[in-house]
Target: Acetate kinase
Amino acid sequence: MKILVLNSGSSSLKFSVIDTASEVVLIKGLCERIGIENSRFSIKNFVKNKKIDKIPELFPNHKRALEFVLNVLVDSEFGVFETVDQIQAIGHRVVHGGEEFTEPLLINDKNILSLEKISTLAPLHNPANVMGIKVMRELLPNIPNVAVFDTAFHSTMPAKAFMYAIPYEEYEKLKIRKYGFHGTSHKYVYKVAEKLLLEKGVNKPYGGYKIISCHLGNGASITAIKDGKVLDTSMGFTPLAGLVMGTRCGDIDPSIVLHIMQEYHLSVEEMSQKLNKRSGVLGIFGKSSDNRELTEAMLNGDERAKLAFDMLAYSIQKFIGSYYILLQGVDAIVFTGGIGENSSETRQKVCENLEFMNINLDYDKNKIRVSGDVDLSLENSKTSIFKIETNEELMISIETYNLLKG
Model:
């Protein structure tokens, strides 16, 4: 089945076409700055080995961007279809499914209204995700649309893990609880890690692998997975919680928020911007949130860069340690995401001093930049250390296919 995968953001639109039979990406692209001046478009056709990078294009709204994408998909030079009717299904990334949606969802008139109602749980993401679904239903009314939720994989967490110790009424009325994010990525790398462990001869008859998945990018989260089910994850009610991130503060004392707001007379929106956009690595380093720039500055002796780098690694180590106890041991640590896949320095720093948990990184192998999925652990390491390239688009296409095929 050839599936169009869409990730509709507030001002961007990522798309790809995936052949689920071969699990091959045929084409992928990006519309940027939708509704903003200087919109642009990029695309790469993997079948024809052709690409266009950041070509100016007019995208006043998402409908125009999606119309443009459909035209490109049937273009004689860059396309992969003769007509849009050859698109067999459309899989949409939706950030938040709340408690109601814990599995992929075939969209109809009734449940899209339900999706709109829970958009308050992710006001920066869900409205744009839902808008993409509505536009595609308008443009291609006869093709099935499936929503795949970032939060769904985390729905197996027990109440003791997802509840907050605030008045219970706030959970009942406002659904305030831990939801977790990056679920599509964590689910994908878990399945790859299972295969890699089997190839190493680590065979558990009931699939009872214990894996700690570290999705490390500008946004970052860590998840404890046992038997394919999530026991806990670092992000919470929103993606602000957990690790030190590129511009997000991660876990802090809640009273700090109240204190800063009172001292500077900040509004809720101003405080939200401070915590989400000006904290984390950027807040400590002060120059950039980019991990590459941070690492370069640290290696050149910048003390604030070193502090930010150490804080980032320390926060990751704390979650790995706590999840090691939760899982009562671990079969594999997985590094994925932009930083997890590409920063050997971050992987090395995180794995330092974890030998007592049978985690032994091959430091020489870790320094070699190799594409694909790689085992970075020493032969005597009881815990495998994998670098796995995440593929959320492929996971969305597989989930879409499985739902439609029953």
User: Anything to note?
Assistant: The chain has a mean pLDDT of 95. The domain at 2-149 is CATH 3.30.420.40 (Nucleotidyltransferase; domain 5). Residues 260 and 290 are 26 Å apart (CA to CA).
